[in-house]
Amino acid sequence: LRHSCVPFCPPFLLLPRRLLLVSDVTLAHSAVLTSHLLPAPGLSAEQLAKVQGVSKLFVAQHEAYKGFLPEELTPLVLEAQKQFSFTHICAGASAFGKSLLPRVAAKLDVAPISDVIDIKSPDTFVRAIYAVTPPALVGKSEWLQQSLTKSDRPELTSAKVVVSGEVLITSLSCAVGASRAAVDAGFVPNDMQVGQTGKIVAPELYIAVGISGAIQHLAGMKDSKTIVAINKDPEAPIFQVSDYGLVADLFKVVPEMTELLKKK
Amino acid sequence: MNPFCEIAVEEAVRLKEKKIVSEIIAVSCGPQQCQETIRTALAMGADRGIHVDVSAKDAETLGPFQVSKVLAALAKKENVNLVLLGKQAIDDDCNQTGQMTAALLDWPQATFASEVKVEGEKLIVIREVDGGLETISVKLPAVVTADLRLNEPRYATLPNIMKAKKKKVDQVKPSDLGVDITSRVHILSVEDPPQRQAGVKVETVEDLVSKLKESGRI
């Protein structure tokens, strides 16, 4: 991409995905727009500036940006666009990016492209279901609070190993995912849901424990490098996408696996 | 009806039952079949419908951007102060229409809502974000998009389905609203994702763990 602009959100959220984004779009010059840097365990402006491919970094600081509200950030991105005429404006497909970019696009009178998984050329993009060519580009609110799920485990969308199910393999350093059924039943918070309407994950190892593999769930994890399925139903659809399948009762398998992994 | 839209309709009906909303207008853009979707909303409790008539051929290229222009024009024309939508369609998963409608109207947006409370001229909305939940307050008029856990939509009862048949559904064309629905995004191809081959079944946990070790995954 000739000249792109990447608006960044709170530095402590979804870091790897956003970094990946910068390295993906660096065909020439990238400018990164970051607003209100928090003294958080995230990326500082200095660190951001060192990311390969970033040639310009804009830092905008204002009290109004503290909640990263799209209503406040849209004018900022529009002003940057007016001054520098970027060819593309990109953001990660996170809750932040999905809130902000359509608003920016509508203001620029262009249609945005969501969930891009590959860039074929500056005007041809691959989405999870479509390949499309777009024309050119792909204070009324108040932020009150954010209650983030607290966990010592790695973040779901960037973890190397993800275990989904209602059980924990405690001896494995992994992020924990869940099916929609488990979320709807109130067993786990919504941000753990893997699937079409939840998180899309692609870890090195995905272990589905007692998950049948509804098509919506598969959509969220089928790009994992290695998939392991543990289910007592030999007909469960999850076995059709798994590299290793074990037909067994999870309540027997999980303690056994936990012990074995401890030994290694 | 798209499940997220169903949740949005349900939320509107609940707001009306709490006497916060005075009238609910159900809107759908597309060919004749849209009227069935509108009737479903009317059976759930919407008061009247507007069918934005788009031919089946044009509907194929109708994207979120064009729809948001239609919705913004209708919101102005009907003088509404709350636009409630599903967060995304389940065919294209775009997740854009609500945000763009808010932008075109210059209204605040509260996307991916899992709880909506009305406090005077303000909405307190709990949003589902990547790391958990976020609470924001938006001034009305505003655009809200519904996430999965906002509510559990009701089933339309037979008497309500019968009543819905008598409710009014107006028909308009995008051009009546001054909206050009030409799309500037072209779908070049639609391909199946690469098929994933089913691998092997292992017999024991030891087997599984040693295979994973061999492949260097653990």
TrEMBL record, chain B:
<dbReference type="GO" id="GO:0005759">
    <property type="term" value="C:mitochondrial matrix"/>
</dbReference>
<dbReference type="GO" id="GO:0045251">
    <property type="term" value="C:electron transfer flavoprotein complex"/>
</dbReference>
<dbReference type="InterPro" id="IPR000049">
    <property type="entry name" value="ET-Flavoprotein_bsu_CS"/>
</dbReference>
<dbReference type="Pfam" id="PF01012">
    <property type="entry name" value="ETF"/>
</dbReference>
<comment type="function">
    <text>The electron transfer flavoprotein serves as a specific electron acceptor for several dehydrogenases, including five acyl-CoA dehydrogenases, glutaryl-CoA and sarcosine dehydrogenase. It transfers the electrons to the main mitochondrial respiratory chain via ETF-ubiquinone oxidoreductase (ETF dehydrogenase).</text>
</comment>
<dbReference type="GO" id="GO:0009063">
    <property type="term" value="P:amino acid catabolic process"/>
</dbReference>
<dbReference type="GO" id="GO:0009055">
    <property type="term" value="F:electron transfer activity"/>
</dbReference>
<keyword id="KW-0813">Transport</keyword>
<dbReference type="GO" id="GO:0033539">
    <property type="term" value="P:fatty acid beta-oxidation using acyl-CoA dehydrogenase"/>
</dbReference>
<dbReference type="InterPro" id="IPR014730">
    <property type="entry name" value="ETF_a/b_N"/>
</dbReference>
<comment type="subunit">
    <text>Heterodimer composed of ETFA and ETFB. Identified in a complex that contains ETFA, ETFB and ETFRF1. Interacts with ACADM.</text>
</comment>
<comment type="similarity">
    <text>Belongs to the ETF beta-subunit/FixA family.</text>
</comment>
<keyword id="KW-0496">Mitochondrion</keyword>
<keyword id="KW-0249">Electron transport</keyword>
<feature type="domain" description="Electron transfer flavoprotein alpha/beta-subunit N-terminal">
    <location>
        <begin position="1"/>
        <end position="181"/>
    </location>
</feature>
<dbReference type="InterPro" id="IPR033948">
    <property type="entry name" value="ETF_beta_N"/>
</dbReference>
<dbReference type="InterPro" id="IPR014729">
    <property type="entry name" value="Rossmann-like_a/b/a_fold"/>
</dbReference>
<comment type="subunit">
    <text>Heterodimer of an alpha and a beta subunit.</text>
</comment>
<protein>
    <recommendedName>
        <fullName>Electron transfer flavoprotein subunit beta</fullName>
    </recommendedName>
</protein>
<comment type="function">
    <text>Heterodimeric electron transfer flavoprotein that accepts electrons from several mitochondrial dehydrogenases, including acyl-CoA dehydrogenases, glutaryl-CoA and sarcosine dehydrogenase. It transfers the electrons to the main mitochondrial respiratory chain via ETF-ubiquinone oxidoreductase. Required for normal mitochondrial fatty acid oxidation and normal amino acid metabolism. ETFB binds an AMP molecule that probably has a purely structural role.</text>
</comment>
<dbReference type="InterPro" id="IPR012255">
    <property type="entry name" value="ETF_b"/>
</dbReference>
